[in-house]
């Protein structure tokens, strides 16, 4: 192409790009005007809800927690939280503001129940030091928050999800009257003496397992001889326990449990499930024994020449660390954890406390256990061959643990994950030990 | 490609320039409309009023407690804002155990000239990857960040446990005195001799692995003291002020007989601490004209009722 034409072509091209037509802005207002309008709208929406908001947060660290928020137009907010009994019963006021960060944001800017989840002090929330439960208290509004009735927020630091749902007058009244605290009575399910718990709804017996740290509920039930499993996250509301995923089985639909009652003297939890009152009852054995679980548990460690660890030993009759293994010492060495090591010796397994001595984890003595017998009904039955090592105590936690392990009724193994099993006494279901690998 | 410069080319460029200059400028809009320009407008609470009356008006000190991530240097760390009920008690202690002794001993002008003007509060400590925690930070003599406010308790707080909580009260005042010490020596340097007292015994980053008791056997008043010259100097000031004369003597006498891991004898360690004390006292006199022992008495007297 000749240079002459090129220069003209360039001219036309650039002139076309630059030629001024009318000012054709996409928006009629400036960015600042629009930000201010959005902030005002969010502020109005928050403080304008006459009965406040129910909030459900999904921290990045897992679990789900519920809140009740009542915002006013003076940067103050009153809260309830289902994290603990006290925060469920006592309202707490703190400060908040709606502010333009990179996007319009809602910041809870002085300490409140919401911050308990995010607190980097693990002693506050049971999370990890430095991170807490990886939750948030500074959120950005999602774009659709103004068009729908709910407000969806995303945490700035950990991307926790917070969903605000307008509360009704009844709900607001229920929160004010301790409704949330009443729902938390459900947490007493941990006080049942047996590992297995059941209830009946719609003519079907369900086995219920509650993980209060992860906030999950698992239901097991039988159709014929086949066991079915359903797991959902849950939170507490002003009326009871709410499932994140509703449970449907034929004509039975469970959105959760309502009307929670707790009989502290007899350790009985009453709930209304699917419109019918029922109680949660103790059970000595699983609804269906996983007969291969005991062998799986044993092989999982044996095949890797590895071992199963329990920090706190046996839980028996409602008492954590029933035999007080945490108090074990040997000279200057302190207790670290209990282990079961299949095939530790040429012809025996090791069941022993591990001690920390000179910054090293070490055996000092151990129970030499025979490889367990696996009964056809799925139990593992342990028995002893003798002891190895020096200074084996004559009584106390190690002896009590050993005697419990060698109970001739044996144990059921409940698989929680690849690397976690609970081993439950087959005698009465009231004692168990949690193994992790 | 080789473009020859011809009249046509120049002409077209000119035409282009003409076209461009004919465009009108966009207005940037009303700048007063920018969100939060001049700071957020928050209706003042009782706490805000207290801070204004007792710190901002007399000393030009701002106590910022509402959460603002960007006041904290490391945005990757997880912190939480302070509890509201802790702020007034903390402000009281800042005033009684740090501001008032300096103002009384020297002058309001001196204090207002050198004091940091902004306090930022965090409810929790800041956890470090090496297992340590941060309790206080100072930036350029202007700003002090106080951590762990949610655990602040003084005698009289409902669940105050003297055995553990008295250390926390001291820890806060310690941080204030420590950071103010930095500001003082950044304006007038301490005598060079101070750096030679514990020559060869400094631990640097390893300070986290030694205990206060071990550090004292080497003539450092705290483990953190042994991390570097400047921190050694201001830690000495801070401990002298918060422990008082009696507490200081107790620390010196607590050094056990024998030798430290680094071979410092008991007598040597004690002599080193006494030498540092003397250097601090003379520094305050010559550099600032302050009678350190009087300042120490006033600070300790303000602190005692809180413990």
From TrEMBL, chain A:
Question: Which positions make up the signal peptide?
Answer: 1-21
Could you tell me the keywords of this UniProt record?
Signal
Give the highest taxon in the source lineage: Bacteria
Q: Can you name this protein?
A: DUF4302 domain-containing protein
The species this protein belongs to is Dyadobacter frigoris
TrEMBL record, chain B:
* Coiled coil start-end: none
Top-rank taxon, per record: Bacteria
Asked whether the keyword Signal is assigned, the reply is yes
Q: What InterPro entries has UniProt attached to this entry?
A: LP_HExxH_w_TonB (IPR030890)
Record's keyword annotation contains Amino-acid biosynthesis: no
UniProt entry keywords in alphabetical sequence: Signal
Q: Residue span of the signal peptide, if any?
A: 1-23
UniProt-listed NCBIfam families:
LP_HExxH_w_tonB
Record protein name field: Substrate import-associated zinc metallohydrolase lipoprotein
Q: Which organism is it from?
A: Dyadobacter frigoris
